[in-house]
Amino acid sequence: MSVDIFLSLLTAAFALMVVFSKKTVVAAFALLMTLLTIAIIYFQVGTVFLSAVQVLVNAGAIAILFVFVMMLINLEQFPNNREKNKMKLIITSFTVLVIMGVLALVINNNIEMLSVENLTDNSMKALFDKLFTAYYLPFELATMLLLAAIVACIVITSHEKHEKHEKEELLETEKNR
Amino acid sequence: MLIEIVEILLKIVIILALPLGALPIIIHVERRGAAFMQKRLGPNRVGPFGLLQPLADVAKFMFKEEVHPTHVRDFFYTAAPLVALVVALLPLACIPIAAPIDAFGKTIYPEVFRSDMGIFFAFAASALGSYGILLAGWASNNKYSMLGALRACAQMVSYELSLSTSVVAMIFLYGTNDIHLIIKAQTGYWFGFLPMWGFFLQPVAALLFLVGIFAESNRLPFDLAEGESEIVAGYHLEYSSMKFALFFMAEYIHMIALSALFIIFFFGGYSLLPGMEIIANKSPILLVALQAISFITKIALMIWFFVWVRWTLPRFRYDQLMNLGWEKLLPLGIANLIVTVLFVYFRNP
Question: pTM here?
Answer without folding.
Answer: 0.83
